[in-house]
Amino acid sequence: MTRNTTRTTSFDVAALAGVSQSAVSRAFTPGSSIAEETRQKVLEAAKKLNYVPNSIASSLTTKRTNIVALILGNLGNPFYVHVLHTFSQRLQEQGRQVLIFTVDPGAESDEAILHLLKYQVDGVILTAAQLSTRMTSICHDRGIPIVLFNRYIPGSDASGVRCDNAGGGRLIAEAFLAAGARSFLMITGDPKGTTSQDRARGFVERLLEEGVRRSDIAEIEGSSSYEGAYSAVLRHFGDKNRTRPEAIFGINDIMAMGAMDALRFRLGLKIPEDLMLAGFDDIPEGRRAPYQLTTVRQPINQMVDEALDMLHLDEPSLPIERGLDHPIAGRLIWRGTIPVPPAYQWPAGTTREAEPNAE
Amino acid sequence: MTRNTTRTTSFDVAALAGVSQSAVSRAFTPGSSIAEETRQKVLEAAKKLNYVPNSIASSLTTKRTNIVALILGNLGNPFYVHVLHTFSQRLQEQGRQVLIFTVDPGAESDEAILHLLKYQVDGVILTAAQLSTRMTSICHDRGIPIVLFNRYIPGSDASGVRCDNAGGGRLIAEAFLAAGARSFLMITGDPKGTTSQDRARGFVERLLEEGVRRSDIAEIEGSSSYEGAYSAVLRHFGDKNRTRPEAIFGINDIMAMGAMDALRFRLGLKIPEDLMLAGFDDIPEGRRAPYQLTTVRQPINQMVDEALDMLHLDEPSLPIERGLDHPIAGRLIWRGTIPVPPAYQWPAGTTREAEPNAE
DNA sequence: GTGAAAGCGCTAACAG
DNA sequence: CTGTTAGCGCTTTCAC
């Protein structure tokens, strides 16, 4: 059997229902003035013919595709998988769909933007990738709002929502200090990404405030991945005359996990006995028994909701929000990779999660 | 600033370039007959206006949207994240994009199908979800090819590509037997999913062939997730008068990992000393130091390529492939969760991966 | 409340 | 090679 060439259109339905084509259109447009009786006739005919309105065609006139583009840079990090999933679910609930654009981690998404313009998407969410200000204005000029998820582009007027990354970095610093650490190693991600920069900055700032010497804060690059952090740690500790830090801050959980495995399985260190460790994100993987990672939880649902709000998908006539930067506070989740100091006063905004762990 | 209402169309470009509108269309259509000189004039004008052809509009006439729908049931399993990523990359290379539809794991995707029909996608890939035969024919009738990824629907004429799941189950059985195991536990996933069924079936068949008694093969349900397997194992072993099996087969890696953590961290068992274990998929997470999971590798790149081939995206006039079932053999990857029997003859199709592990 | 008719932005014959 | 002219399937005035 070869493929059907002529698809069933609203005209076919109209003919079967004995009404005009515009009646069919109205039957499928909520809130349009149509008699309930005609509506039923149309719906019945439509069902008989398996008719589904062609939203591609309708978007030509309405200028709405109900498609939101999501630019993703790093699906190797489970955090962004979670982000994708949350966006997809929320949008589906609203009758919209996600069009995926994957770019190399840390790469410019300019090309992706060019492609998504062709699809006339209603909005774009950008995460884990860079964006030129030129592309931002091209989108804005065409009336396509773009919101940055967990990053900002300095000098750009794109709006964004993000975790308070610097604040989160400070929370980790405080936890380490409370547990008695005085020398540190940071494993950073994409050096061009503001997320990594901010977390590191907040972390360092807080340490310096407490009198830690700058020379006691080392830094290595873990390329935002498990493998990157794993090998970066091995490289760093391979240098024998380097003194071992007392605490390691993985800028995100997946790197903290990579570092942790390198420390335990290759360097034979015990955590938190020999060395304490923390991450950032609170991905489900970090909660698992082998890791029990102390971390900062990103309020992902709230962040997604706010990002969607910023898009004004339901009121396209509203002006595009520009230059908004909406930080949302994270929450320290205390698990097993930082020893609890005796008589420790849990600060506000801290959750203590003691997992059942019989080992 | 309020949004731009009038977008730049091919007419604007035509006017600026001093040519007809159809010339603009030709300039952007590869292989159409147009003088190189006019082409350049048009491209130049287009660049000045930041013009990008509206592919929504063009799809109205060409009947091609260059959008492929991907129905995903379970992003909690990293295997499917990898699948998504691979599809997205391949399709982007071809100038196409992926439209995501997430459904509850194991749920019917009928509603998703109804939605994707509206978008006139060029094809649909369905994975980790169920599909009624009725929906299959609705798609086929409209000329939309649908290929099942790693599953098949009995009685449906949808084509699919999958790993040889039964064969993979047999490979695991053989490895266990070679290592001397005689009593077994399977942790299965979605009971309605053919993937889980086939792996279990192949596994059991092979064991029975070797004279294992059916009563020595237990089975519990792990709902295809880490957490599901983790708690299923705790529940099963909580019953003290149950004898401990010598080998556990997690129908997929993520469940094997959950089981492994429950066994080690909650039940205090050593793997492979006290108990051997294997998974299926070969997700990167299973290769990590804490797991070193012996498993069957799914040839994901090959599977994605074949699935895309079946869609005939480049030759839409070809008839839709029906009822094709394309199994591709997996490969046993021997790591640390099954002890290597002395003087073991590595069968063909086996890869031995000894990870550097200093512990 | 309903039908007729004019587009939305583009492609695809069709003449020239 | 290029311009003209119909549509693609739908929404949206505009009369009735």
Automatic annotation (TrEMBL), chains A, B:
SUPFAM superfamilies found in the cross-reference section: lambda repressor-like DNA-binding domains (SSF47413), Periplasmic binding protein-like I (SSF53822)
InterPro entries referenced in this protein's UniProt entry, alphabetically: HTH_LacI (IPR000843), LacI/GalR-like_sensor (IPR046335), Lambda_DNA-bd_dom_sf (IPR010982), Peripla_BP_I (IPR028082)
GO molecular function, a single term: DNA binding
Record keywords: DNA-binding, Repressor, Transcription, Transcription regulation
Residue ranges annotated for the HTH lacI-type domain, each copy included: 8-62
Cross-referenced PROSITE patterns: HTH_LACI_2
Domain of life: Bacteria
CDD domains: HTH_LacI, PBP1_LacI-like
UniProt cross-references to PANTHER family, sorted A to Z: LACI-RELATED TRANSCRIPTIONAL REPRESSOR, RIBOSE OPERON REPRESSOR
Name by which UniProt lists this protein: LacI family DNA-binding transcriptional regulator
